[in-house]
Design brief:
By secondary structure, the chain is of the alpha+beta class. It has a six-stranded antiparallel sheet with strand order 1-3-2-6-5-4, with helices on both faces. Helix 22 runs parallel beside helix 23 and helix 23 packs antiparallel against helix 24. The longest helix has 55 residues.
Length: 941
C-alpha cells in the first residue's frame, strides 16, 4: 500500500481526451472534487469520466497519479472483467452487479487481496463512497468518488443527500458542457462553410450576399416587425427557430407571442411595448423560452432596435438566435449554487472559504446559527477567525495551519475550542483543505467546523458512568475476543492495570480448567449470536488468585457490527461466605459425633483445608517443657505430597511464630520469604509450606496447641479466611475441651474406684502405724481418729472439687495429715504463702496424697526413721517450683511398670496448672519436681 505522503497537494486535471463526443474535455472539475471532499469531510476525492470501455481521470484531489489510474481501472468494466473489483453487488458502479447509483464500501482494505491497487497492490484508503453519474437518457457519464484513509461506518443522512445533490449538479454541468461542445462543433463547421462562402462572395464582389451568408452561418435569424400593419417578416432561420411555416403570414399576437412559452409570453409583450414607447430607451430584447409540443427546453435570445420616423417607431428590426445550451448550462449552474446554499443551510457545520491572498473569509449561515456570529462584517477575515480560537489552543492551531499551508499536507484536521458570541467556548472539530495554483502557491483554504460540545458532554457523562460504575465493565470484539475497553472497577476485580487488559484476549483471564465452558460461550459470540445472559463463572486474577464473578453478558447488533459488553460483579465473598457457612454446619455435625480427640481434629482439618482451599490443614500439640511441636492429625490436598504427618519439630525452629502465638494472637503468613520470618523459613519449607495461618490454643495462659493451614504457594490471606480459621479453631477448642472434660470425669471415676479400693488398705496402714507408735490405747484411739478424719477430708476434695483452705500449705498439710504420726521431723513443709484455685488444690491434694501413700507403702514413711520434705518457691518470673524429697527410707529402685498412681502423679497436676511434673527414683529416696506458672495455680477454672 502506498504511503499517504505521496498524495498530491492540489487538484490534478487529466489530459483532455474526448471519446467520440461522449463527454466534453475533462477539464475544469477542480471545484467539483474540492466540494465533494469538503461535503463528506474526507481527505481525497476523484472524478472519472467514461472514455471508451473504461474511465479517464478528469480530476483528483488528495490522490496520487498511480492511485488515480488504479481507481479508474477499479471502477471501470474492464477492472471487473479482470477480477480487480469486489463482486458483492454494491461497490462497482459500471459492473452488471451494480444495483444503485450510490455505492459505499466502509472498508476498502478488503480489495487488497484482489489486486485493486497500483500494480496489483492495495489502494492507500480505507473508505470509498462512489456515485455513478448517469445522464437523463440513462447514458453513463462517469463516477464521482470520495475516499478516506481510514475505514468509516458509512455516510450520514445529510452527507448522502449532499453528495447526491452534487452528483446531479455535476451531471447537469456535464450535459450542459456537452451541449455547448456540440454547439461549438456545429459553429466550427458553419464557420468553415462561411469561410468558403466568403471566399466565393469576395470573388463575386457581392457584399450583400456576403453579409447574408455571414448571418446565416452564425445561425442568427433576422426579423422585421411593422407595428402599424402588425406584420412580422422573418428569414428562414428565424422562422425555423420560432416554429413558423415558410408560407405562414406572421404577426405579433397570433404568431410571435404564441411561439413564446406561456410563462414568458407576458414579459415578452411588455418588453416589446416598452421598446415601442417613445419615452423608453428604444431597446427590445431578452432570453425567452419557446413553446414546444414535447415541452422540450428551448431558449432564444431576441433583440431589436426600433426604426424611428417622425419621432415614432414605425418598425423594429432585430435578430433571434438559439441559446438553449447556454441557458441550460446557466440554469444547471444556478441549480448547483442553490443546492450548495441549501446544503450549507442544512448542515450544522460552519463552512468557510478563506482567500489566503486577500485574507477574506466567506462563511455560511451556520456560523450564526451554531455560534452566534454574523457571517459577514468583521467575521469575513482569517485574522478574526483565529482570534476566536481559545488562547490555550491558538498556538497549536496556527502551527497546524502553517504546516498545511507551507505544503505539509493538502488536508488538516484539528480539535480546539472556539469562542461563541455569548462568551462561551465550543469544542469544535475543524477540517480544512488547501487549494494551490498551478505553481503550488496556496490561494484558498476551504474548511468546516463541527460543534462537538454536546457530543463531548455526552461522552464525558457516559465515561463518568462507565468509570464510576460499581461493577466491572469490559467491552470486547466478539469475533477476536480482544478487549476494547475496561473501567477502573474491572481492573480492580482482575487485579491488573488497563494496559495489561486492553488489546489482549479475554480468554487469558479464565482458568484453564474452565476452558471447555469458556470456549463454548466464545464460539456463540463469534458466530454472531445475540446474547443477554447472566452467569456465574471463575476468573484468575493477575496475582493468580481464583475469584468468582456474576457476569451479565450482552451481545447486540449495532448497525452492521456486533458489540459485546460484560458487566462483572465479584461474588467471591458471597460464594465463600455460603461455602464457609455450609462448612461450619458440617463441622458442627462432625464435632458433635466425634468420639475422640483424634477424630475431632481430623474432621476439623479436612473441612478447613477443603473449604479454603489449602494444601494442608491440621492440629499440632505444643510441649513447652519438652520443647517440641507434634502434629497430631492433618488433612492433605489430593494433588499435594501424600506423605503422613511430619515428625516432631523442635520449638526452636519456629522462634518468630512461637513468640506470636504465645501472646494468644493468630498469625497469618502470606509468604515465608518475609525477612521478618527468616528464622522460621527453613522449618516451614520442610513442611512444604510457603504461606500459613496459625491459631493458638492456650490453657491457663500457656500455649498448648496450634490449628494450622498451609499453602504450597505464596498467598495473601483475606480477612474472611483468617476469621474462618479462627471460627473453626474456636469450635474445635470447645469440642476438645468437652472431650477433655469427659476424659477427666472418667479419670476421676477411675480414681474414685482406685481410692475406694485403697481406703481399707490406708485405714489398715494408718491403724497399724498408730498402734505401733502409741504409748497407750487412749492415745492410739485419738491419733487414729484424727488420721481417719484427714483421710475423709482428702476424699471430700476428690469428690467435690472444693477445698477448705486457699493456702498452698494448708492444701499440702491437709493431704499429708493422715500420714503424720507425730514424730518430729517426719513431715517437713516449707515455702511462701500462695493462694491456689480449687482445680489446682484438688490436683495438688491428690498428687500429695498419692506420693504420701506410695511413701507409706514403699518409701520413707514405711519405716520409723523415714522423713519427707516438701518445699516450694515463687520466682521473679511468676513460676512456682515445688520439690518432694524422701530420705531415710528403704533403698529405691525404679518400678518395672507404672501403675495408675504413678501416672496420676506425673500428669494430674501438670494438666491442671499447665506445668511440668518430673518423678525421679533416686537410690536415697523418691524425688518429685513440679514447675508451673503462678497463673495456672491460681486459675479459677
Amino acid at each position: 500500500m502506498s504511503a499517504p505522503s505521496t498524495l498530491p497537494d492540489r487538484p490534478v486535471r487529466a489530459a483532455p481526451r474526448v471519446d467520440s463526443g461522449a463527454h466534453p474535455a475533462k477539464t475544469g472539475f477542480d471545484d467539483t472534487v474540492l466540494l465533494a471532499r469538503a461535503l463528506l469531510g474526507a481527505p481525497a476525492s476523484f472524478l472519472g469520466l467514461v472514455d471508451g470501455d473504461g474511465l479517464a481521470v478528469a480530476a483528483r484531489l488528495g490522490i496520487a497519479a498511480p492511485d488515480g489510474r488504479a481507481l479508474a481501472r477499479l471502477l471501470s468494466r474492464g477492472g471487473l472483467d479482470r477480477g480487480g473489483g469486489v463482486r458483492q453487488g454494491q461497490v462497482l458502479p459500471h459492473g452488471d452487479i451494480f444495483r444503485d447509483d450510490l455505492c459505499v464500501l466502509p472498508d476498502l482494505r478488503v480489495l487488497a487481496d484482489r489486486g485493486a491497487g497500483p500494480g496489483g497492490g492495495a489502494l492507500p484508503f480505507g473508505f470509498l463512497a462512489a456515485l455513478r453519474l448517469v445522464s437523463r437518457d440513462g447514458v453513463p457519464l462517469g463516477t464521482l468518488c470520495v475516499l478516506d484513509t481510514l475505514p468509516r461506518a458509512g455516510l450520514a443522512p445529510g452527507q448522502e443527500a449532499a453528495f447526491r445533490a452534487l452528483g446531479r449538479r455535476t451531471v447537469g454541468l456535464l450535459e450542459s458542457r456537452a451541449a455547448l461542445d456540440r454547439r461549438e462543433a456545429r459553429l466550427a463547421r458553419q464557420r468553415q462553410a462561411l469561410a468558403a462562402r466568403a471566399a466565393t462572395t469576395v470573388r463575386l464582389g457581392e457584399s450583400a450576399l456576403l453579409m447574408r451568408l455571414a448571418i446565416e452561418a452564425t445561425e442568427i435569424g433576422i426579423w422585421d416587425y411593422d407595428p402599424l400593419a402588425d406584420r412580422l417578416d422573418c428569414d428562414a432561420h428565424a422562422r425555423r427557430l420560432l416554429g413558423l411555416d415558410a408560407a405562414q403570414p406572421a404577426n405579433l399576437a397570433r404568431t410571435f407571442l404564441r411561439a413564446i412559452h406561456p410563462d414568458d409570453r407576458m414579459r415578452a409583450a411588455a418588453d416589446l411595448r416598452t421598446a415601442l414607447d417613445p419615452e423608453g430607451d428604444g431597446r427590445f430584447g431578452g432570453d425567452y423560452r419557446l413553446a414546444r409540443p414535447d415541452d422540450a427546453p428551448c431558449w432564444v435570445a431576441i433583440c431589436g432596435r426600433p426604426v424611428l420616423a417622425g419621432g415614432r417607431a414605425n418598425r423594429i428590426v432585430g435578430s433571434v438566435r438559439d441559446v438553449t445550451a447556454r441557458k441550460v448550462a446557466d440554469l444547471a449552474s444556478e441549480a448547483v449554487r442553490e443546492r450548495y446554499r441549501l446544503i450549507a443551510r442544512a448542515t450544522s457545520d460552519a463552512i468557510r472559504d478563506w482567500d489566503l491572498v486577500a485574507d477574506t473569509v466567506t462563511w455560511n449561515e451556520a456560523l450564526q446559527t451554531a455560534y452566534g456570529w454574523a457571517p459577514d462584517g468583521e467575521a469575513a477575515t482569517g485574522a478574526w477567525w483565529l482570534a476566536q480560537v481559545h488562547p490555550a489552543d491558538r498556538d497549536r492551531v496556527e502551527a497546524a495551519l502553517g504546516t498545511a499551508i507551507r505544503g505539509g499536507s493538502d488536508a488538516w484536521s484539528l480539535e480546539y475550542r472556539f469562542l461563541r458570541a455569548d462568551g462561551r467556548h465550543a469544542d469544535v472539530l475543524d477540517r480544512g483543505y488547501v487549494i494551490r495554483d498551478a505553481d503550488g502557491t496556496p490561494v484558498r483554504m476551504v474548511g468546516a467546523m463541527l460543534d462537538l460540545s454536546e457530543r463531548n458532554r455526552a461522552e464525558a457523562d457516559v465515561r463518568a458512568i462507565f468509570e464510576g460504575a460499581n461493577v466491572g465493565i469490559v467491552q470486547l470484539d466478539p469475533h477476536s475476543l480482544e478487549v476494547l475497553s475496561v473501567n477502573a472497577k474491572l481492573c480492580a476485580i482482575w487485579g491488573a492495570p488497563a494496559a495489561a487488559i486492553v488489546g489482549r484476549s479475554v480468554t487469558l483471564w479464565t482458568p484453564q480448567e474452565d476452558a471447555a465452558e469458556r470456549d463454548t460461550l466464545h464460539r456463540r459470540l463469534a458466530a454472531g449470536e445475540v446474547l443477554r445472559e447472566t452467569l456465574e463463572k471463575r476468573y484468575r486474577r493477575a496475582d493468580g488468585r481464583i475469584i468468582w464473578a456474576r457476569v451479565n453478558l450482552v451481545s447486540q447488533a449495532l448497525g452492521d457490527r456486533l458489540q459485546t459488553t460484560a458487566m462483572i460483579e465479584d461474588i467471591t465473598l458471597e460464594r465463600t461466605t455460603e461455602a464457609r457457612h455450609r462448612a461450619l454446619i458440617a463441622l458442627g455435625d462432625a464435632l458433635r459425633d466425634a468420639s475422640g480427640r483424634t477424630e475431632a481434629i481430623g474432621a476439623a482439618a479436612a473441612i478447613l483445608g477443603a473449604t479454603l482451599p489449602a494444601t494442608r490443614a491440621g492440629y499440632g500439640a505444643v510441649d513447652v517443657a519438652g520443647g517440641v511441636f507434634q502434629v497430631e492429625a492433618a488433612w492433605t490436598a489430593a494433588d499435594a505430597d501424600p506423605a503422613g504427618p511430619p515428625p516432631p519439630c523442635p520449638l526452636t525452629a519456629f522462634p518468630e511464630t512461637l513468640a506470636r502465638l504465645a501472646s494468644g494472637l493468630p498469625q497469618a503468613i502470606p509468604d515465608i520469604a518475609d525477612p521478618a520470618l527468616a528464622g522460621d523459613a527453613a522449618a516451614y519449607a520442610g513442611m512444604g509450606a510457603r504461606a500459613a495461618i496459625n491459631v493458638p490454643l492456650t490453657r491457663l495462659g500457656r500455649l498448648a496447641g496450634v490449628l494450622f493451614v498451609h499453602d504450597r504457594a505464596p498467598r495473601a490471606w483475606a480477612a474472611g479466611e483468617i476469621a474462618f480459621v479462627r471460627e473453626v479453631a474456636e469450635r474445635l477448642w470447645g469440642t476438645l475441651g468437652r472431650i477433655q472434660a469427659e476424659d477427666q470425669q472418667a479419670l476421676r471415676n477411675r480414681e474414685l474406684s482406685h481410692r475406694l479400693k485403697n481406703t481399707l488398705a490406708m485405714v489398715q496402714a494408718i491403724a497399724s502405724q498408730t498402734l505401733r507408735n502409741a504409748p497407750d490405747f487412749e492415745s492410739a484411739k485419738e491419733a487414729l481418729a484424727a488420721r481417719l478424719i484427714a483421710l475423709g477430708k482428702a476424699h471430700d476434695i476428690l469428690l467435690t472439687g472444693a477445698r477448705e483452705s486457699a493456702g498452698i500449705a494448708a492444701v499440702i498439710a491437709g493431704a499429708l495429715a493422715i500420714h503424720d504420726d507425730g514424730q518430729a521431723g517426719r513431715l517437713a513443709l516449707d515455702g511462701p504463702e500462695i493462694e491456689v484455685g480449687p482445680k489446682a488444690a484438688l490436683s495438688l491434694a491428690l498428687m500429695m496424697h498419692e506420693l504420701a501413700t506410695n511413701a507409706a507403702k514403699y518409701g520413707a514413711l514405711s519405716v520409723p526413721g523415714g522423713r519427707v520434705a516438701v518445699t516450694w518457691s515463687l520466682d521473679a518470673d511468676a513460676m512456682v517450683r515445688m520439690l518432694w524429697t524422701e530420705r531415710g527410707g528403704p533403698k529405691v529402685a525404679p518400678p518395672t511398670r507404672k501403675g495408675f498412681g504413678s501416672r496420676l502423679i506425673e500428669r494430674g497436676l501438670a494438666g491442671a496448672v499447665g506445668g511440668a511434673v518430673g518423678l525421679a527414683y533416686e537410690p536415697n529416696g523418691v524425688v518429685c519436681r513440679v514447675e508451673a506458672p503462678l497463673s495456672g495455680f491460681q486459675a479459677v477454672e
